[in-house]
Amino acid sequence: MRSAIVIGAGIVGLAATKALAEKGYKVTVLERSGKAVGASIRNFGMVWPIGQPDGELYERAMRSKSIWQQVCMDANIWHDPVGSIHLAYDQDELNVLSELAEKYQHRGYTILSADKTKIKSPAANVNGLKGSLYSSTEIIVDPREALQKLPLWLTEKYKVQYIWGKAVTDVSYPSVYAGRDEFEADVIFVCSGADFQTLYPEIYADGHVTSCKLQMMRMEAQPANWRIGPAVCGGLSLMHYESFRAASSWQELRKRYERELPEYLKFGIHVMAAQNQFGEITIGDSHEYGATVDPFDKQFINDLILDYLDKLVRLKNPRIIESWNGVYAKLTNGDSELVISPEQGVTIINGLGGAGMTLSFGLCEQVVSLTGIPNSK
Questions:
Q1: Predicted confidence band at 131 (pLDDT cuts at 50, 70, 90)?
Q2: H/E element holding 233?
Q3: In whole angstroms, what is the distance from residue 149 CA to residue 75 CA?
Q4: Which of 43-47, 243-247, 264-268, 371-375 has the lowest mean pLDDT?
Q5: Residue 68 lies in a domain
Q6: How far is CA 100 from its chain centroid?
Q7: Residues of 309-329 as b/e, b for ≥16 C-beta within 10 angstroms?
Q8: How many of the other CB atoms lie within 10 Å of CB of 103?
Q9: What is the pLDDT of residue 251?
Q10: d(CA 105, CA 112)
Q11: Above 50 in pLDDT, residue 315?
Q12: Are residue 124 and residue 249 in the same domain, yes or no?
């Protein structure tokens, strides 16, 4: 049996591990922390095909969704196929949504009136609501639960070995070094998220890579098991995802936001809300870019998020119980991912930006199958 080492136990590392194990490899995962604590657990838990443009990325997102659904059932991971809803409070927002519903007819989007929106989304604020776009495609997982249960499931199903608290300090095929410890494998996958510059600083410096910091919050569980319905988004989310630029009226909406909401665009704020299995609501987020990100959260950013959220929803319990930031690697050249082999037998998978939960399973399946790695069996 051929062997593989995966560096990193975030969502990309988990996806690579699954793909390698299914190809018959004996996989060892080295993770510097005692558990996954990076960007993979600091997100909404949204599997979000709606944000991907038609073609390879949308197909990859849909494949990832299919894998997520099967894995969640097999590993007893909570997931909610609740879909998503984008709310429009101005005519130009509704114009974009209507264009998108027409452009992506094959995706089955539905334009809803204010009254029908309230039926689909009990949390939606219908005061001034022009309408909404509903998509049934998106699913929600709890990233904290998923990133805890997936390694256990992979160990049980595929005999994957996890070595926690082991920081890799060097890679020189076929060896991986963690301080004085040396490990060898037939193939090595580096899936270490925003920290991969530690191992490959030259590639990080020359690979059009920067860091993105986001701020998020979580609200207390809603009373009496009250659910908000689909993941909720506002017009600002139309600025964030590539797929929405397909609408010809997108540029005009962007210009209005530049005039009226410059602070939101400056800090990459687009406001979304998703509910977990406990009834808690995760809200956010912002996007600040730079080679070195400020570790300190900005309260005014959280205030901007909450102010905009108040326009979108009416919640039973809006009390904030947690806030945090996350950091992930982001490509600056427009590419959707960085897949590179710095030497024979070593593959780096990184740079998925904020789409790791949506794309990782599909991407890693493709990379493992297309990079000439033979079946181990």
A1: very high
A2: strand 231-233
A3: 7
A4: 371-375
A5: no
A6: 22
A7: beebbebbeeeeeeeebbbbb
A8: 16
A9: 98
A10: 15
A11: yes
A12: yes
Token output for 113: 């009136």
Same domain, 177 and 284: no
Residue 80 preceded by cis peptide, ω within 30: no
Same-domain status, 231 and 125: yes
Q: Are 204 and 342 in contact (CB under 8 A)?
A: no
- Residue 174: asked if its preceding bond is cis (omega within 30°), the reply is yes
Q: What is the CATH number of the domain that holds 270?
A: 3.30.9.10
In a shared domain, residues 163 and 284: no
Residues 262-292: tens digit of each pLDDT: 999 999 999 999 999 999 999 999 999 998 8
Quick one: how far is CA 302 from the chain centroid? 20
Is 314 in the same domain as 282? Answer: yes
pLDDT in tens, 339-371: 999 999 999 999 999 999 999 999 999 999 986
Tokens of 3: 């062997």
Number of separate domains in the chain: 2
Contact 208/236 with Cβ under 8 angstroms?
no
Q: What is the CATH number of the domain that holds 8?
A: 3.50.50.60
Give residue 175's identity as a one-letter amino acid code. S
Residues of the domain holding 43: 3-60+143-200+335-370
Does residue 376 surpass a pLDDT of 90?
no
Residue 160 sits in the same domain as residue 289: no
| Claim to verify: residue 190 and residue 215 sit in the same structural domain | no
Asked whether residue 46 carries a pLDDT value surpassing 80, the answer given is yes
- Residue 165 belongs to what H/E stretch? none
Q: Provide the pLDDT confidence category of residue 373 given band limits of 50, 70 and 90.
A: low
DSSP string for residues in 80-144:
E---EEEEESSHHHHHHHHHHHHHTGGGT-EEE-HHHHHHH-TTB--TT--EEEEES--EEE-HH
Its pTM surpasses 0.90: yes
Co-location of 195 and 213 in the same domain: no
Q: What are phi and psi of 242, to 5 degrees?
A: -60, -40
User: Mean pLDDT across the chain, nearest whole number?
Assistant: 95
